[in-house]
Design goal:
With 124 residues, the chain is an all-alpha fold. It has helices at 21-32, 38-43, 51-110, 114-123. The longest helix has 60 residues, at 51-110.
């Protein structure tokens, strides 16, 4: 490590304070601080909300939440019923239009031949 001569850096009175500086410092600081009126201090006080008011606000919020929830559920149920009606209408339309194709496809899938159909009809 390098040897440094610290004697060069010692404080030898490089900074001097003018005479009487600290005697008048407090007076000069106080002269620069503006006086605050008492009215402003009242505005800064904390707002106090009573417990009764808090309970009323909580009850109002709970009622509003219940109303919003019930309206949302009701609208969802109505949409679901409307979707069910649309699905049933669509199925009816499809079976009327394509009914014969579906029956033929089912018969082919079930491997039912004409003899089985005649036998079933003759028994019933």
């Amino acid at each position: 490590m390098m040897n440094v001569n610290l004697d060069k850096f010692t404080d030898k009175g490089q900074y001097k304070v003018p005479e009487g500086y600290f005697d008048t410092l407090a007076d000069r600081i106080m002269a620069n601080i503006p006086e605050t009126p008492k009215q402003e201090e009242k505005k800064k006080s904390a707002k106090i909300i009573s417990l009764n008011t808090r309970v009323k606000i909580a009850v109002a919020a709970a009622i509003a939440g219940a109303l919003i929830s019930s309206v949302t559920i009701r609208l969802y149920q109505q949409d679901k019923k409307l979707a069910d009606v649309n699905t049933k209408t669509e199925m009816t339309t499809n079976s009327e239009t394509y009914g014969e194709e579906y029956v033929n496809d089912y018969i082919d899938y079930a491997m039912v031949d004409e003899d089985d159909i005649y036998k079933y009809l003759s028994e019933n």
